[in-house]
Design goal:
By secondary structure, this protein is mostly helical. The chain is built from three helices and no strands. The longest helix is centred in the N-terminal third of the chain and has 33 residues, at about 5-35.
């Protein structure tokens, strides 16, 4: 167990951040899956703009890495371009 007040606070903070990061990472994964399932191009493009901004924001905040966010955005745009 922790011996100092500061270490107790650090434990509380890290637990809170862990839960929040897990929530946002899961939300992003679900949003990406939802766009990948879409078959209409116009519908997918509308959803893509929201998902892209979400991924870039999470990349900036280091919830997911910037490169992973960029790779996911790139893959989604390629998927949307293939739709007819």
């Amino acid at each position: 167990m922790a011996n100092h007040k500061s270490s107790l606070k650090r434990i509380r903070q890290s637990e809170k951040r862990k839960l929040e990061n897990r929530y946002w990472a899961k939300t992003a994964r679900n949003a990406v899956r939802k766009v990948r399932k879409m078959t209409e191009k116009s519908e997918a493009e509308a959803a893509y703009s929201k998902v892209q901004s979400l991924l870039q924001r999470l990349g900036r905040k280091n919830i997911i890495s910037k490169k992973k966010a960029a790779n996911l955005c790139s893959g989604l745009s390629m998927h949307i371009n293939k739709l007819g």
